[in-house]
Amino acid sequence: MHSESSKPLHTIDSVVIRFAGDSGDGMQIVGSQFTNTSALFGNDLATFPDFPAEIRAPAGTLAGVSGFQLHFAAHDIYTPGDQPEVLIAMNPAALRVNIKDLKKGGLVIVNQEKFIPREFEKAGITVNPLEDGSLEGYNVVKIDLQKSTKEAVEGLGLGTKEIDRCKNFYALGMTYWLYHRPMEATERWIQEKFKQPYQEANIRALRAGYHLAETLEVFHERFEVPAAKLEAGTYRNIMGNQATAIGLVAAAEKAGLRVFYGSYPITPASDILHYLAGMKSYGVYTFQAEDEIAAIGSAIGASYGGSLGVTATSGPGMALKTEAMGLAIMTELPLVIVNVQRGGPSTGLPTKTEQADLFQAIYGRNGEAPLAVISASTPADCFHMAFEAVRIATRYMCPVILLTDGYLANGSEPWKVPDPDSLPDLSVAFHTAKEGWRPYNRDAATLARAWVRPGTPGLEHRIGGIEKEDGTGNVSYDPDNHEKMVKIRQAKIDGIEVPDLEVTGDPGELLVVGWGSTYGSIRAAVELARSRGYKVAQAHIRYLNPLPKNTEAVLKSFKTVICPEMNLGQLATVLRAKTLVDVQTVSKVKGKAFTVAEIFAAIQAKQ
Amino acid sequence: MSRTYTKKDYMSDQIIRWCPGCGDYSILSQAQTVFSELQIPTENLVVISGIGCSSRFPYYVNSYGFHTIHGRAATIATGLKMSRPELSVWMVTGDGDALSIGGNHTAHVLRRNVDLQILLFNNRIYGLTKGQYSPTSEQGKKTKSTPFGSLDHPFNPAAFALGCDATFVARTVDIFTKDQRDVMHAAYAHKGASFVEIYQNCNIFNDGAWDALTEKVTREERVLMLKHGEPMIFAGGRKGIRLNGLRPEVVELGEGGLGPDDCLKHDETDPYLAAIIARMDFPEFPVPMGVIHRRERPTYEVLANEQIEAVQARSGKGTLQKLLLGGETWKVD
């Protein structure tokens, strides 16, 4: 439904918009609706929701503020944007938390009904920010949201609380007008999601917001962000955790295996369980275990039985799974462990992002316990790296840790859907031949032992966590055998074939090396720097253990190497140890992603 | 052509490393006999254990076997049985493994009713770590870690299992070879998690832990052999169990007094009765042996697989194409 407008329409290249309100205000919903609409419209986009750990902190307080930021553009973009240009603030607390991020001269839409002394108190302020001059330099639009929404839904017999629940759509309607977005997709979604009279109420609120914006004098112009020129193909908007789930199932299909997903709910990994639990039509087993240990134990049991055992968690859960990872290493069974990292240590910052579990992933087990560690760089890349995790686990008969983080898990971007036939074949052949077989015989190329499923006649054997005798797999305490097995297990992981590290940008001078979710910010910062004449390059390490074979050569070909990480320098430490290159840490540990500006500043500092 | 299995077929080539005189030998032997009586194909038999002396069990059985980590056998067995329901999965554990470090998993595998045979060797001591008290050790027990006596109140494993809504709870003794085999047969026949507590003697660190009950001279007086549908009588028919309100009591039988008909009748299927008799303990009562409780409830692996099949029957099997193109998509030319 597009109403013609009398106001001028300007074409712009990109917009960063942030919706902020109470965690009960439905900000995540309107954010994802705006995202979906923009995706269908053909923009490139990146999103980042930011919500509190509390489900419903006291209304109106700073602790309860939930936000959703969306960057949509007519060109390729890599991050959800450093600074919003538009802020929708549903109450004083949301304004107070978010205003410092808003670009100077930006637009603020506030729900002015909430700017009253009672609400100021909850937000910890004493004077009205709409009147104290603190918003000078911003373009402020004040709306009586509750009142306007009430008028829009009049006659539907809704109570005050129910009307209150529609006002997020009113605000969304306003932003749709402002950015010339079609309302159809959201209306379709409302029709699917809500029963009457709420369906009608939300649609009316949405449309009323749209029309109000048209009549408001403060909105004297509107903007359009044309579709981006993306590579030809079929696209869908995808969140990181969703991409991980789909990648696991796709890889299992390609391997001819069933997914067994054992998991215990934990933020921000739970959505993987939610997605997979809905995928029963693909034969996926999901098992909500009694704890993190049972989750990984059940996955190991399933792998032993010939399924693809998978578990996912976040930092504290990883700590609990550690002993079982050692068992999977010792028994040489395939296993995929996803760690959706969050702020630590201990409970840390459950809903915030961090990259501080790299050491834990590579080193955090008793004994010499090597396993493969890989990481995803963007929400959509979670698909590809989940697929890779399955390839490595089944080909090398080993556990693989896939590191993602809260920023990737909840962030979204358009994903060019791959052609199913283009995905590599991962077929697994279970071993059945008795001749010459022993439980710990190895493939000469991969050093993997054969995968023998219980139920295979003539191959009955015992495995376990006690040291294995080379070949037979029998219990062995022999000192020489132990050292030999330690070295074999290490050699197997060291020998995993991974693609070379790619470098983009200018050779020889300054390299920005990173891993995981910093990819977008680094890429945008490096492009910005190069556009200003700096000689700089980017290399993003997706395979962390083993490292790509050319890592040392790449690092040594630059005069300076810096490494932005959301930790105190974990990858830098690993790279220094493995390559003896003086990799310099650029650290940020605030539970927030790097901005492009921060990385750009780090590049500038090295000029 | 199906082959016939003898007891020997279930013996592995590994040297058994339990201490000479350990009660585990008898249990291993009874289990191997039962496997052969049941003619379970060795390739379809999987023995999964945790850590402890008892958990070395899989190495000695010629079948598929998995010696896992301390307390976690139930988790691995659950994953295996869910995804491979056709296998016969036996779990071997001990009092420390199942009730201390793995207590959580024991509780959950029982409430879920995963179709496993769970053999819990209860020797009331930590053997493999050389003699600390266990969660079934009697209070006040002096061990290496409790030189002045333990403070912990012990678990009653059968009562614990019933508290977890186990659908099969039985108790037997390492040296009661015939009864042990009967219980194992019943456990195998039961569809669901079969919890079998086996009183087992650790002759090194807790020798004679069960002697008061199991010595030939005292056995009749101190053990009550349960039989479904039959009155609870013991001591060669001289004594019985009667219910006084909700409390059981020992009564003398015969000589114009009470007869077997006055005694409590065992009903395996009654969870209330099970709760009462599981708590009967020496010296106030004889200790009940045999199947304490057995009732039908859908098994977890059947429910899990049926749910998947139902979804597939309703909405068809997923394809890669459908998976990738789920949600709203758009085309860029």
Radius of gyration of chain A: 26 Å
Large-scale geometry of chain B: globular
CATH topology of the largest domain in chain A: Pyruvate-ferredoxin Oxidoreductase, domain 3
Please, what is the CATH homologous superfamily of the largest domain in chain A?
Pyruvate-ferredoxin oxidoreductase, PFOR, domain III
CATH class assignment of the domain at 7-209 in chain B: Alpha Beta
- Tell me the strand order in the biggest sheet of chain A: 11-10-12-13-15-14-21
Poorly predicted sequence stretches spanning 5 or more consecutive residues of chain A: none
Low-confidence stretches of chain B: none
The assigned CATH architecture of the domain at 7-209 in chain B is: 3-Layer(aba) Sandwich
Structural class of chain B: alpha/beta
* Shape category of chain A: globular
Biggest interface and its residues per chain? Answer: A-B, 75 and 60 residues
Helix share, percent of chain B: 25-40%
Order of helices and strands of chain B: HEEHEHHEHEHEHHEEEEHEHHE
Number of strands of chain B: 12
- By helix and strand content of chain A, what is the structural category? alpha/beta
The first-to-last residue Cα distance of chain B is: 61 Å
From the structure above, extract its key features.
heterodimer, A: 607 residues, alpha/beta, Pyruvate-ferredoxin Oxidoreductase, domain 3, Rossmann fold, 3 domains, seven-stranded mixed sheet, six-stranded mixed sheet, 20 helices, globular, B: 333 residues, three-stranded antiparallel sheet, 11 helices, 31% helix
Give a written overview of the molecule:
The complex is a heterodimer of chains A (607) and B (333). Chain A is of the alpha/beta class and 607 residues long. Chain A has three domains: 9-224, 3-Layer(aba) Sandwich (Pyruvate-ferredoxin Oxidoreductase, domain 3); 236-422, Thiamin diphosphate (ThDP)-binding fold, Pyr/PP domains (Rossmann fold); 503-605, Rossmann fold. Chain A is 36% helix and 20% strand. Chain A has 20 helices and 23 strands. In chain A, the strands form five sheets. A seven-stranded mixed beta sheet of chain A has the order 11-10-12-13-15-14-21, sandwiched between helices. A six-stranded mixed beta sheet of chain A has the order 3-4-2-5-6-7, sandwiched between helices. In chain A, strand 12, helix 12 and strand 13 form a beta-alpha-beta unit. The model of chain A has no long low-confidence stretch (mean pLDDT 96). Chain B has 333 residues and is α/β, with parallel strands linked by helices. Helices cover 31% and strands 19% of the residues of chain B. Chain B has helices spanning 24-38, 73-83, 95-101, 103-112, 157-163, 177-189, 211-214, 216-222, 271-278, 300-315, 320-324, and strands spanning 45-49, 64-67, 88-94, 117-122, 168-173, 194-199, 223-225, 233-234, 239-244, 247-252, 287-294, 329-332. Chain B has an eight-stranded mixed beta sheet, with helices on both faces. In chain B, helix 2 runs parallel beside helix 10, helix 3 (95-101) crosses helix 4 and helix 5 runs antiparallel to helix 9 (271-278). Chain B is globular and about 95 Å long. At the A-B interface, helix 1, strand 9, helix 9, helix 11 and helix 12 of A face strand 2, helix 2, helix 4, helix 10 and helix 11 of B. Strand 9 (233-239) of chain A pairs antiparallel with strand 12 of chain B.
